[in-house]
Here is the input.
Amino acid sequence: MSEEITEKKNDSNWKPLILGILCNWCSYAGADLAGSSRLKHPANLRIVRVPCSGRVNPLFVLKGFQKGFDGVMVLGCHPGDCHYAKGNYYARRRIMLLKELLQSMGIEPERFHFEWVSASEGVRFAELVSEMSEKIEKVGPFTGVDCSKVPAAF
Amino acid sequence: MARIGVFVCHCGTNIAKTVDVEKAAQAAANFPDVVYATDYKYMCSEPGQNLIKEAIREHKLDRVVVAACSPRLHEPTFQRCIAQEGLNPYFAEMANIREHCSWVHEDRGQATEKAIDIIAMLTAKAKRNEPLFTKEIPLTKKAMVIGGGVAGIRAALDIADAGYKVVLVEKTPSIGGRMAQYDKTFPTLDCAACILTPMMVDCASHPNIEIMTYSEVEEVSGYVGNFKVKVRKRAKSVDASKCTGCGVCYEKCVVKGLPNPFDEGLGTRRAIYVPFPQAVPNIPVIDRENCRQFTKGKCGVCEKMCPAGAIRYDQEDEIVTEDVGAIVVATGFDLWDYSKLGEYGYGKYPDVISGIQFERLMNASGPTEGKIKRPSDGKVPESVVFISCVGSRDDEHGYPYCSKVCCMYNAKHALLLKDKLHDAKAYVFYMDIRANGKGYEEFVRRTIEDYGANYIRGRVSRIFPEDGKMVVRGADTLLGQPIEVKADLVVLATAMQPQPDAKDLARKLGVSTDQYNWFAEAHPKLRPVEFLTAGIYVAGACQYPKDIPDTVAQASGAASKVTGLFSKDALTSEPMIAYINEDTCVGCGLCASVCPFTAIDLVEVVDRAKSTREHQVMRTVARVNEGICHGCGTCAAGCRSMSAKLRGFEDTQILAEIEALANVHS
Here is the structure.
């Protein structure tokens, strides 16, 4: 375990740092709506804008964990609402596989979320960020891949 | 090495209140490749933009990061700004520290820290931005208007008058929409038909307008300037080219007494019908669910009687594909079903009706020929109670929003009632009177003061029948006492709600709706008549409850957007599209199989490594058809050899954003 991570684990002021990868048309707009509606939520999320959840290479999620994020959320348009017709369906397939991979690496399922958020769901967006922050606060800081946390099924 | 300038906006106090903008700018100055960072009160203002331009000149900046609002709001503004200094517009990035930061956080320390993170991410992305170039794409100068109410009619006429072809698609057998059902319009008491019918006729006779009634949009593909819309023209069972509109068929039709939706169930029609006498086009349709020829397999009366030989029982639905450059959505509204309300009798009392039904009772071409008679026994009412906000401003049963028009039409109904039946009493139960339009407040005052309508502030808790009357029991909150009115007729101002198939249409079009399923405009103030999907516009009450003046104004607004689009000879395409690195592509075709737009083809190229001078060896690679690619990036995420890439959202850019953040925190 690197010094930096040990330091983070022991810091009593630790707050989760979450990476959000949001599609431009629905979820990023939903986050904008949460903003213009002044819906307060924890300041733990950092957002990367992509055109479509279909653009999300699972590598981006892994890179997030590699670089020390405590959690990653990928948000896209609801099924049927994709600006590009079906990019979100491809995202869903990839992410189902990715979830298994993360588990097999010993990364707790609470740390990774894939949800649909539409442009009108500012409230839902703010709630999701709050919920995810709480969940990660419970599991604690991410301190790297831990083989002892791999479920028996793997 | 890039030379990045960072410009942190205060947005008045919108950002500066919760984010220490000076500190953010100072922190940004230390990020890799940042050579200049500053903050300013309003970056989007002219002095703000000049500040950016001067800094580009003075510090030889080649990338600009503006930390301000959402890129969905002002990215084009700053792209134009830096383009004026000769930079490629796609060298501008926006760090969203308002919607995603200052507006949603209260702790100044945390918000400032987050803002600095966001700037770090976008700075790292900007460093890796490549110059991007738009391309010209052709455009079809023909528009489609969906919905033939007053909004659709106005929009179609405006576009057609500007010299462009328009296809007007209407679901019902006639254009006219809701307005055709009304008797008079507030606040001028113009006869609705006198305003609308000439417009309907103009539409029908306009050389640039093609009307498709009894038709629905099935499928929409393509993009701005080049939409392909499949329209299902439902079988009318009448040959429109032969029908003269004489009306013999529906006079002779033997299936009588079917409820006419145009009369809101108060009047009847036959199995072959035109919904109302002024219908445009004046061509009847056969209701196949009730026509005896279709249900019993024998009848043929209309066919025998039709002097023009226009009846076609074997007619089938027809699917036509229209190529259009722009689409106006003007599908209007529906009305809330008050039968959910037990206190108003679950819709079971015939003398408790909705506002639109009262409108039909007053209309000269309505079921009673304009004589106000109550539905149960045809009695001319001596007292009528009008109730506001039925389903509107009612979180519990209906909708939290105000339907905007009910205060005014209640006043109109009360006034017209007193005008037609001088001795009748009009009571209006209201929560507030919202009369905020030109001449509106004066109109309500006239109803109360000159016509003597009795306005009671309060809600009605129960309606029940007693001795042939409807007893309306409620509270007068101004007097602070209960009140009971015995009425012959009760008229409910039911809430406006989205069309039941609005969400479905939104999906076909690829546009958004809000939480109620009203169509969602791109921006309520900056782009009120446009959707985020380019080339699609919105008009009328399909967006939100609106009255006729607002609807018509917006329809003209949408039409002027369309004609603005059509005034160009070609459109510029977004350059954020996919491309393939053919050197590393192995031709597996995965990208082609996942592309939602089939924009990727597999092509044969010469394999230079294996070819000799005498013998050419070919290999397969993927190639993006730039005219079709929409830039979703599904191919880039799926490519096994990382050969499929997306301009503007390259792997290197996205990974750099993630890494930059890690660097700030380490």
